[in-house]
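Methods: holo model generation. Sequences were used as deposited, without trimming of termini or removal of tags, and paired with ligand SMILES retrieved from the corresponding compound records. Each pair was processed once, and we did not select among multiple samples. The sequence and zinc ion SMILES for this entry were:
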Amino acid sequence: MLLIRNSNLVDWRRSSRTTYDILIDDGVIKKIDTRIDCSDADIIEAKGLVAIPGIVDPHVHLRQPGYEWKETVESGVLAATSGGVTSLCAMPNVMPCPDSVENYHYVRSFQSDTVIRVLQSCSINQNLSGRRNNWKELYEAGSIVFTNDGLPVDRNSDMAAVLWFSKETGVLVAEHPEIPEFDKSLGNTENAVICRDVILNERIGGRLHLQHISLASSIDFLKLAREKKIRFTIETCPHYFIETSEGLSDGFYEVYPPIRTDNDIEAIRRAIVSGLIDIIASDHAPHTLEEKTSEVPARGFSGVELLFPLSYTALVSEGLLSLQALTKLLTFNSSNLLGINPACLEEGERADIVLFDPNESWIVEESSMYSKGKNTPFLGKKLEAKVKYTIASGKIVYPFIGESV
Ligand SMILES: [Zn+2]
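and the model returned the structure below.
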């Protein structure tokens, strides 16, 4: 048994003014009360700390199998737990790609003993861009998220078909909105893809999820679409609403969608505050230093461990959003998106809990990152909110054994 003493509780439904004790037994929250005595429980003294539900990150590249020099399931999960993430969804651009039942089971075999909940998405097309996969077989094998992330769904007919499949079964269709061949000549094609998808889904009504939205013009369109009650969810990432650090080598700013203008950053921030954006995800995309500093730098940022502290610093510390509202974006909406039971601070619920210190500031440094990829454009940035404990299914998974708080 584990007893958390004297912490404030915040989830999307409540924000406590008084402190509470939380008793955890057998992976679930057994009791919450102003004072609990339990002589045979391990005790975490949490005075001054805030307890929130475990963070759910629906957009993570774990790189294994196939790209273990960038990240492994083990190192990715260490990074996740150090940032308070207790559930995540892994993207399918690994090798082999989970585009068949056999490959799906093979990729899953690397995730069998993780200390946090790991879901694995399957691709929509063979190896992200070929003919259509057999979605029904993959769904029956356990996959509930379909995406070609890294690439968009190229053919209109495939997008319509997978949205119909989503409507029948309830699986999630996540879109990476980009037209790669226009990257250089036309730029900013994010909104062209989201327009196609949203308009198709207006007629179909599947579960469409728009990944890493980054443009003010996308927000303008999506605002109108939301008023029409078209079914879709919107995700953004910290690097689309937070200014990055200055002075790093060029490759450290290379990502898709690219870092946008101040006007876009402001629009994304406003769309978070207004509730138009449903979810903040990391799009954790670790690479080696060599890959980021080469002539054609690899795209993507390492970020699963920074998702919560970055969001907290930019939104809650700045007074734009309450912590309660932030937990809605980082836990409640994202767990609903993935179809998992949302962790909440209630008796009987799964004990996925983060304890953090809202008054401890710290600096993002390579040495403080657990991911193999130290490729973040937020190096050197001062953040508020330090995760002190991550508890997943009732077990302390951070700090790691042998490390102190
Ligand atoms: Zn993507």
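The pocket of zinc ion is lined by residues 149-150, 176, 211-212 (CB under 6 Å).
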